Amino acid sequence: MSSLLPAGFADMARFPALSRRLRLGVVGGGRIAGTQAIAARLSDHWDVVAGALSSRPEDARERAAAFFIDPQRSYASFEAMAHAEAARDDGVDAVMITTPNHLHFAAVEAFLKAGIPVLCDKPLTNELDEARGLVALAEQTGEVFGVSYVMSCYPMVRQAQALVRAGEVGVINQIHVEFMQDWMVPETAGQAPHEQWRLDPKRSGATSTVGDIGTHAAHLAQFVSGLTLTDLRADFHVCGHPKTLEDTAFMMTRYQGEVPGTLLATRLAPGNRGGLRVRIFGSEGGIEWDMENAERLKLARFGHPDQIFTRGQGHGITAAVERFTRTGRGFPEGLIEAWANLYTEFAMAVALRQDGLERPQGWLGLPEVRDGAAGVAFVDAAVRSSVSGAWVEVETVA
After folding, report:
1. Are residues 187 and 281 in the same domain?
2. Three-state secondary structure call for residue 189
3. Residue 349: domain span
4. Looking at residue 214, what DSSP letter applies?
5. What are phi and psi of 233, to 5 degrees?
6. Are 205 and 218 in the same domain?
7. Are 123 and 376 in contact (CB under 8 A)?
C-alpha cells in the first residue's frame, strides 16, 4: 500500500496533499451530519462513501441518496456498517459519529473494535464511566479518535492560543467564557426532530444546555489558556417556558494554579445566535475573541494601544495558523471552514496512523478522546454541583 503522506510533510506553514482522498463514513443522518459532510469535502481530504443514516431502512436509503452514497453501502445499523466496511478492501478510512448522545458509546466501540478511526460529536458520552471506557479502548486499539470541539479550529482561536503561550498576556489571573444562544425563547422550541432529543433525558443525558454548548465553552477556555479546569460551582435554571432539562447555567470556575473564572451558558438570550466569547486576562494584558466576529482577535497589553489581529496571511499571524486560511484577508470565512479545519487535522492524523508514522510534536491541535472525556467530567461536575449547591472537583480522567 502506497504512503498517504509525502516525504518532508511536517511543514508548519502548510498541510500536505495526500496521495488520495480518504474514505469517510457517516453514522447518524441528522442536520449536523450534513454540515460535517460538506466541511469534510471542503477540506479536500475526504470523500463520503458509506453511511448508517437511520435505523429505518427506507429512511436510511433516502438519506444515503442525498449524500450520494452507493445503496450497497447504506446500512440500517452501525454494527452492520462496522462489520461490512472493515471487511472491504476499499472500506472507510474513518467514520463521523453524529447520533444523539446516548448512542455515542456503542457506535464508537463498534468502529474502534473493527479497526476504524472515529470522529465523535460532543459530549462524548452521557456517563463518565463510559467516557473512561472509551479512553481505555482508544489506547488499547491505537486508533485515531477525534472529538468535534470545532470552535477550537477557528484560525483566530489558534492565534489566541499561540499568543497566550508566547506570554503576551503574562501570568494568567482570570478566565471568563460564555456561550449564549436564543433559539429556545419561543414556546415551540424543541419541537423539530433534530431538537427534541436535546430535551429528552433518555437521549441527552442529565443536561441539555450544559452538555451541548457548555462543553464547547469549557473546552475553549482550557484550549486557549492551557490551564486545566479543576473545580466549579454551578447553578442550573429554566428561565423560559417549562422544560425537562435546564436552558441556562451560571458557573464559578477554578483552573490549575487557583486561577478563578466564570462560565455562562444559555439558550434564552435574545439577540445572541452564536454568542461564544472567551476572555483571558493576565499580569501583562488580556485577550478576547467572539465567535460572532470570528475573524478578529483583540490583544490588549496594559499601557499600550490595543492590537486587532485578523484572519489571513502575514500581519502577525503565525505560520501554524496560516495553514487554516483559505481566502485572503477581508474575504470572510466561518463555521463551515472551521469544521473543514477539524477534518483536515483529522485526515492528517489518520494518514499518519496508516503510514505507520509518529505524529510530529505540536503539528496538530486536533481535539481527541481525552478532551472529550474531560468534557464529560465537566458535565458530571456541573450536575453534581447544581444538586448540592457546593463547589465540586472536576474529576481527572486517567
Report:
1. yes
2. coil
3. 22-150+342-367
4. I
5. -130, 125
6. yes
7. yes
Q: Which residues of 342-361 are buried (b: 16+ CB within 10 A; e: fewer)?
A: bbbbbbbbbbbbbeeeeeee
Report the first-to-last Cα separation within the chain, whole angstroms. Answer: 35
Number of domains, the chain: 2
Q: Which helix (H) or strand (E) holds 392?
A: strand 392-393
261 plus 389 within the same structural domain:
yes
Same domain, 57 and 101: yes
Do 293 and 186 share a structural domain? Answer: yes
| Residue type (1 letter), 146 | G
Q: Tell me if 1 is assigned to some domain.
A: no
Q: How far is it, in rounded angstroms, from Cα 32 to Cα 96?
A: 10
The verdict on 245 and 122 lying in the same domain is: no
Query: Does 178 share its domain with 304?
Result: yes
Q: Which residues contact 361 (CB under 8 A, 6 or more apart)?
A: none
- Is residue 90 in a domain? yes
Spell out the per-residue pLDDT of the chain, length 398, in tens: 689 999 888 777 789 999 999 999 999 988 899 999 999 999 999 999 999 998 888 888 888 999 999 999 999 899 999 999 999 999 999 999 999 999 999 999 999 999 999 999 999 999 999 999 999 999 999 999 999 999 999 999 999 999 999 999 999 999 999 999 999 998 887 777 667 777 787 888 889 999 999 999 999 999 999 999 999 999 999 998 889 999 999 999 999 999 999 999 999 999 998 899 999 999 999 999 999 999 999 999 999 999 999 998 888 899 899 999 898 888 899 999 999 999 999 999 999 999 999 999 999 999 999 999 999 999 999 999 999 999 999 999 86
Is the full-model pTM beyond 0.85? yes
Is the same domain home to 190 and 128?
no
398 within some domain: no
The b-or-e profile of 112-143 (16+ CB within 10 A means b, else e) is: bebebbbbbbbbbbbbbebbbbbbebbeebeb
**Diameter over CA atoms, the chain:** 65
